[in-house]
Amino acid sequence: MNGAPWCFNWACRLGSLADTVRGRFVSALFSTRALRTTAVAVDKSTPTLSEAIEACLAGARKRFDETIDLCVRLNLDPRKPDHNLRGLVRLPAGVPRAPRADDARARGAHLVGAEELVEHIQEHGVTFERCLATPEAMPYVSRVARVLGPRGLVPSEKLGTVGVGIGALVEAAQNSVHFRTDPFGQIHLPVAKVSFGPERVRINVLAVVHHLLSLRPESVRRRYLLGATLSRTQGPGIEIGAASLAER
């Protein structure tokens, strides 16, 4: 364009400038739309507990009774000893499994004994889901601790699996589920079956959440309960609003 009139050169420059401005305007427009879309996604309120339960139960298959699981997200650092929460939580509306029934055996214990129970474990391995003991029986437990330890079955007072009244321990264990903090500060546990219905599911979920709130470590300064997710065996995870989890 060196030989072209100066007015033509300026017109070309203005045209290029206009294209640049137009391109930036279009980019800004798309960015604004993207921000609006993101804002809508972020501001969208999460379901309440009742809404989440209703959505979780919707479309459940009738071929079998699906288990409903709860994942509670807590502001925990598993690297800190006092942040590793574990134990038993009682489910007042029933546990999502059929109790084994056979003073202890009459209440649902699968195996009962001391020396004979140690021999059973040594010969057949672990054939039970939970191990309970009285303080007097702990010396027998130590003989098979290497077998029980890797499975997390060694009885302890912290887990509520050691006590004087073995019958009461068995009855409590039949109505409770075990929980433990995972490496991400979350706690996963089964809370119900689809056949329980909305109200029984709600009662058990709130029982778990309130129990976890009572175990809040003193070192947690910021918000403790971050949220939760409810899901069934063959269903999607449904987010639950943290505010509705604190209801009574």
Automatic annotation (TrEMBL):
Highest taxon above the source species: Eukaryota
CDD domains in UniProt: Ribosomal_L1
GO CC terms, sorted: ribonucleoprotein complex; ribosome
Alphabetized UniProt keyword annotations: Ribonucleoprotein, Ribosomal protein
SUPFAM superfamilies: Ribosomal protein L1
Pfam families (UniProt xref): Ribosomal_L1
TM ranges: none
Function statement: Binds directly to 23S rRNA. Might be involved in E site tRNA release.
Family: Belongs to the universal ribosomal protein uL1 family.
Quaternary structure note: Part of the 50S ribosomal subunit.
Protein's name in the database: Large ribosomal subunit protein uL1c
Record gene name: MRPL1
